[in-house]
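Archive maintenance. Older records in this collection stored only the sequence; we are now back-filling the structure field for every entry so that each record is complete. The fields below show one back-filled record exactly as it appears after the update. Entries are processed alphabetically, and Dehydrogenase is next in the queue.

ARCHIVE ENTRY
Title: Dehydrogenase
Organism field: Agrobacterium arsenijevicii
Length field: 343
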Amino acid sequence: MKRIDKESLEIFSAALLVAGGFRPEDAHKTAELLVWANLRGVESHGVLRIPRYIEMVGQGIINTTAEPVFARSLGAIATLDADGAPGAVGMELAVEKALELAGAYGIGLCSAVRITHAGAIGFFAEKIAERGMIGIVMTASKPLMVYHGARAEGVSTNPLAIAAPTRGRPLILDMSTAAVALGKIMAAKDAGASIPAGWAVDAAGKETTDPAKVSAVLPMAGPKGSGLSLMIEVLASVLGGNPLISAALGEKRDAGFNGLVIAINPGLIGDQEHFIDEVERLADAIKALPPAEGVDDVLLPGERGFAIADARIETGIPLAAGTANRLLAEAKKYHIEGPTALT
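Back-filled structure field:
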């Protein structure tokens, strides 16, 4: 493991993305999103993604000259056509629009079509909660996960994040519909580690513990995970007019990525302060539950991530040797000097 401070990692990450074709402002937004994941212990959605993002630019998947536009807007609903912009850029626009609409109508819904990979979407839900609103965020992509009862990929690992504000740190649920995020398998490959049984299958549809042999991941809780993923596809893709799964399965076509952002304003539905009081009272009641045997503390959604972030601010963010080496290899390609902490 190598350790590096948050600021240095963000600067280095943004420099790599700019060298790879990102506009400087878009690179900084993307670097902030990726490092947020590393800071909270979600290495699967962190800076290990940078070489792939640069590759996606070369393949024309990420459009670094994108001009996102709000194609439709009526009342509390808007649709953003992100034009293939970096995921962090498209989702940030969707978040701001949803917040604006929620401020006017009590709820704001923004469908974001033709975005690209959006990373750890808890990042966007947290931004909404920090503004005193409830955030619901989901994203959709091509088939990556076995549909329960089938032998082949049928749905994606579509994530869902929900954040609720408090007077302190918000509650943040950020989950994949898969047994594991695909990025965790990438992280295991970087670390030279095996993966647990029940995470993924190989090309023959059999479970594997070798991350190099993974063909598709398995759904969380069997039919529940694949069913939830399917319905996120309905909400984030079909509703927005850019179906992904049917395009991939029926037409063998990759239609990209989509997102959906919903902001709910408690102050326009009821009393804002009373709502915050009740969220905190609920949190206190859960924290007061007796821990199970072998458990030190009952944790709320997002609490573990905040604790890891506090520690990593003090001690630095650890990167697996494989991840550090791949980033340094990218830096060498573009004649960028790597941070001392990684070299």
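Update note: Residues 87-105 form the longest helix (19 residues). The chain has twelve helices and 14 strands.
Entry marked complete.
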